[in-house]
Design goal:
The chain has helices spanning 26-53, 60-89, 96-129, 134-137, 140-166, 183-187, 195-228, 233-261, 270-294, 297-309; strands at 2-3, 9-10, 12-15, 93-95, 175-176. The strands form 2 sheets. The protein has a 3-stranded mixed sheet with strand order 4-3-5. A two-stranded antiparallel sheet has the order 1-2. It is globular, with a radius of gyration of 22 Å. It has 10 helices and 5 strands, in the order βββααβαααβααααα. The chain is mainly alpha-helical. It is 72% helix and 4% strand.
Length: 317
């Protein structure tokens, strides 16, 4: 709990929600949020099912994609269900401890996704630029090590930011102008100088975003060079096809995350932060399975195979 100015404990914060200043009908907002949540959960769960059920998808690229879908599922569940409940009950009270846990889970998952996307880019680089050594370089042991490292980096970032954010005294207004406990929005309520901590957060986020992004950029620059040297048009088309879905996901995720976490606090506005946060906490996890299934023949083939086994798919099996 946080100390108020009169030395009494603040038992909770109040989340104002996504539409604090121009609220639509609560039922309409709930319906839209419920549809987004359902689409994100069902899409990522289906992708996990396909990857687990189809032997053709048991390779490093889909191994990382499965973990990305799992992280997307957890990210949506960290934010959206509580937001939906707040819309129905007309209030967004969250305990001080609950706010800290939300910061921890959210930043852990966000950091994990950053590094998983870098792992996926590196995997495509090895597959296209060094195919003869692909099986040795991207062995099962290496893949598990990369996934574990991604989660550890994310957890370290989440723990550091959650602990330090909750150590500040909070007084005056308890209203967080956001739909979840995002660090920049919470810090606005601190009744202490947070400038040094904000600088530390900025540096930390730059490292968490730019290090994986550097790996992604270098990987795709080398892939581009290798593709341009290919004499076969079919080979170039196939190489671009295997990378296009990942590049779209990277653009969506990193574009939104960098807007939020790589700008100094002075340049943040509540409305803009909420829109961008909604994009990468709910919209991007909803779109990811769709992007990979529409632009990936192997995933589409696995889906057709699964539907063919289903009795409702014509009884073929």
């Amino acid at each position: 709990m946080a100390w108020a100015g009169n030395q009494t404990l603040i038992p909770h914060f109040m989340l104002l929600g996504l539409f604090a200043h121009s609220p639509p009908s609560p039922l309409l907002a709930f319906a839209a949020l419920a549809l987004t949540l359902l689409a994100a959960l069902s899409g990522n769960a289906l992708l996990l099912l396909l990857i687990g059920a189809d032997a053709r998808l048991h390779n490093p690229m889909y191994f990382f994609l499965g973990w990305l879908s799992l992280a997307d599922l957890a990210l949506v569940c960290t934010v959206a269900p509580r937001m939906a409940a707040d819309l129905l009950r007309g209030g967004g009270a969250i305990s001080f401890t609950g706010c800290g846990l939300q910061i921890l889970f959210f930043l852990t998952l966000l950091g994990d996704e950053c590094f998983l996307l870098a792992c996926m880019a590196y995997d495509r680089y090895v597959a296209i630029c060094d195919p003869l050594r692909y099986a040795a370089v991207m062995s099962r042991r290496v893949c598990w090590l990369l996934v574990a490292t991604s989660w550890l980096f994310g957890l370290a970032d989440g723990l550091v930011q959650a602990v330090f954010t909750l150590r500040f005294p909070y007084c005056g207004s308890q209203e967080i102008d956001h739909f979840f406990c995002e660090v920049p929005a919470v810090l606005k309520l601190a009744c202490a100088d947070t400038s040094l901590y904000e600088t530390m957060i900025y540096v930390c986020c730059v490292l968490m975003l730019l290090l994986p992004f550097a790996v992604i950029s270098v990987s795709y620059l080398r892939i581009l060079g290798a593709v341009l040297r290919m004499r076969s048009a079919h080979g170039r088309q196939k190489a671009f096809a295997t990378c296009s879905s990942h590049m779209v996901v990277v653009s969506l995720f990193y574009g939104a995350a960098m807007v939020t976490y790589m700008r100094p606090q002075a340049y943040h506005s509540a409305r803009q932060d909420k829109v961008v946060s909604a994009f990468y906490t709910m919209v991007t996890p909803m779109l990811n399975p769709l992007i990979y299934s529409l632009r990936n023949k192997e995933v589409a083939g696995a889906l057709r195979k699964l539907l063919g086994r289903c009795p409702c798919g014509g009884g073929r099996g």
